[in-house]
Fold this protein.
Amino acid sequence: MHRRRFIGLVAGGLVLSAAPLGAGPSPEGDGSAGSAPKITRLVIVKHRRRLYLLSGEKVVRRYSIDLGFAPRGDKKVEGDGRTPEGRYVIDRKNPDSRYHLSLGISYPNARDRAEAARLGKSPGGDIFIHGRPFLIRLLKGRRDWTAGCIAVSNREIEEIYRLVEIGTPIDIYP
C-alpha cells in the first residue's frame, strides 16, 4: 500500500473514531481480551507521535508515544538517538523489561545493516516498544527521551503487550 494512501486511511480512521486524540487508548468494545479484535499490524507515525494498532484496515487502538532523543530522520547508527523508519515485525516479548514490559522490533534489517556498514559503524539494535516510567518523564522534562525506542505509559504497554502477537508487522513512518 502506498504511504500517502495508508496515512489517508489512518487519518480517516481517526476522524471516524469516537474518542478524541490524546485520550489514551481508544478501545472498540469494552477492552476485555474476549472482545478485542485480532491485531494484524502496528503503525507508528513519528511526526504525529502516534502508535496505531490495526485489525485489517481499521484502527482499533491508538496511543501517544515518546521517541528517541533525536526523533527526526531514520536511525542510521548505534547511539544516534533516532527511532528507525521502515517495515519491521514484532520479534519478541520481554516480561522482565527495565521499562515495565516491552515488545522487540526486528531492527536492524538487512537494509539497516548495509547502510551502517557503508558508514563504517554499527547499526545498533534492541529497539522496543516499552513502558514510560513516571520518574524518567519527570526527570527528563521532555517528550522524546529514549535511545531510539517507542515509549507509552505502563498501563498502555500492558494492553499492547496483551493484544500484539510475535510476528505482527510494524510500519514506522517519518
About this structure: Residues 11-33 have pLDDT under 50 and may be disordered. The longest helix spans residues 3-16. The CA atoms of residues 29 and 35 lie 6 Å apart.
